[in-house]
Write a structure and sequence with these properties.
single chain, about 120 residues, alpha+beta, Arc Repressor Mutant, subunit A, two-stranded parallel sheet, two-stranded antiparallel ribbon, about 15% strand, elongated
Length: about 120
Amino acid sequence: MNKKKIKELLGTLTDDILNETIDFPNGSILALPDLTMMFTKRRLELIQIIKMHHPQSVGEIAKITKRPKQAVTRDLKILERFGVVRLKRAGRTSLPILEREIVLFSFPRTNPSILDGKKVAGEA
């Protein structure tokens, strides 16, 4: 996706947000297709677990997900780098805190009409 197409797409999304046809939670992150690589299935799962279960440590998340603690830590640090979660140090443990809601838009790469501005986000 080139810069011109991204700019057009963002303009359309901005108009829809301002016209209140699309509503985002405060502090949310808009992740467009080329940026969604950071939101893997496993990382989205971590966000959901933090939101629903309020775990008290990375180890607790590792137990819930049945993943190695090192893998969970790595993914949480990536999410922390993007401001999605914060790892609050409490002695030897890290308390994962959700900092932002995530809003993901899935635009099919095979449908050029979206990128050409023929279809507005939020339209059926």
